[in-house]
Amino acid sequence: MELSNILLVMASLLSGATSIKKRQAYFSGTGELPCHFTNSQNLSLDELVLFWQNQHNMVLYELFRGRENPQNVHFTYKGRTSLDRDNWTLRLHNIQIKDKGLYQCFVHHKGPKGLIPIYQMSIDLSVLANFSQPEIMPISNRTENSDSVNLTCSSSQGYPAPKKMSFVLKTKNSTTEYDVFMNIFQNNITELYSVSISLSFPVSPETNVSIFCVLQPQSTQTQLLSQPFNIDPKIPKPPQPDPGHGLLITALPALLLIFCGMMLCIKKKKKKQPGPSHECEAIKVESEENEQSKGRVENRVPERSDEAQCVNNTSKTASERKSQLY
């Protein structure tokens, strides 16, 4: 009976050791580390010791005779695990990139003679992180005289590094893919990747163009496509007017205003100045008035001399009367 139990334990250990179960988990998510122990001998939990450890022999979780034993757990995993006792699966929470790798679960029977290993299983855990949607940005604005456009495309927070990143240019009649050198940057703390590409495109000014950025991650992840970067055809410019003609049109209202002002001034001056006939009449009237004044002067001269004579005669008569009295 003891020999059969030993053979059963050895068979379980060999089967668990040779088969490696692959599991995937996402960054910041939860990873499952199963332990397919069947307990064919119907051993109670008080007789069992289970624990999981990583490839560096750091213990993630230990169940000692039906009770959790945190004393042997490495500080890296404390507070990050939970055990589903229905299917003997350990869940590792808040997955980080550094959590990827090989894990093992061990089951021991706690008997009178100490711990006897009865089951072992290996799990290979891979960690993924989805890249952000690629985003296209112009490096510089397209000039009017240029038939090319400079673009860059970037995506971040992904793991592992993608296979390739490319531009796809689509017109009405064609589709062209441009494989471009991919710049890869890795964060030293999170170990997540950021990638970017840049390219200068020749663009026909008469054609509608749509440019996409395509990110091809590893085979286990979905291809990512950016929003289209659309380039409309250039609108032909209307013919440029003659600069001299434009200047004349601009100055015409001012010239008309000046001309009208001059005409108004000339008209007012004509109203104020007398005509030739009126001027002649004025000269004639003035000459007649001069002649009349001259005549008046001549007539007055004799009148003044008579008065003077009358005065002399009067003075003489008075003197004579005076002499007779004496």
Key terms for this structure?
326 residues; alpha+beta; six-stranded mixed β-sheet; five-stranded antiparallel β-sheet; 18 strands; 35% strand; rod-shaped; disordered N terminus
Give me the number of helical elements.
3
Low-confidence stretches: 1-17, 297-318, 321-326
The total count of strands amounts to 18
Distance between the termini: 216 Å
Rg is: 61 Å
Q: How much helix is in the residues?
A: 25-40%
Strand order of the biggest β-sheet: 1-9-8-3-4-5
- Round the mean pLDDT to the nearest integer and report it: 79
Q: Give the CA-based shape.
A: rod-shaped
H and E string = HEEEEEEEEEEEEEEEEEEHH
**Sheet with most strands:** 6 strands, mixed
- Structural class assignment: alpha+beta
Strand content: 25-35%
Walk me through this protein's architecture:
- The chain is rod-shaped.
- It has helices spanning 2-18, 243-272, 276-325; strands at 20-26, 31-34, 48-54, 59-64, 67-68, 81-84, 89-92, 101-111, 114-128, 135-138, 148-158, 164-170, 175-179, 183-186, 193-202, 209-216, 224-225, 229-231.
- The chain is α+β, with helices and mostly antiparallel strands and 326 residues long.
- It is built from three helices and 18 strands.
- Mean pLDDT is 79; it is low at 1-17, 297-318 and 321-326.
- Strands 1-9-8-3-4-5 form a six-stranded mixed sheet.
Give a nutshell description of this structure.
The chain is of the alpha+beta class and 326 residues long.
Furnish the topology, listing elements before pairings.
Blueprint lengths: L1 H17 L1 E7 L4 E4 L13 E7 L4 E6 L2 E2 L12 E4 L4 E4 L8 E11 L2 E15 L6 E4 L9 E11 L5 E7 L4 E5 L3 E4 L6 E10 L6 E8 L7 E2 L3 E3 L11 H30 L3 H50 L1
Parallel strand pairs: 1-9
Antiparallel strand pairs: 2-7, 3-4, 3-8, 4-5, 6-7, 8-9, 10-11, 11-15, 12-13, 12-16, 14-15, 16-17, 16-18
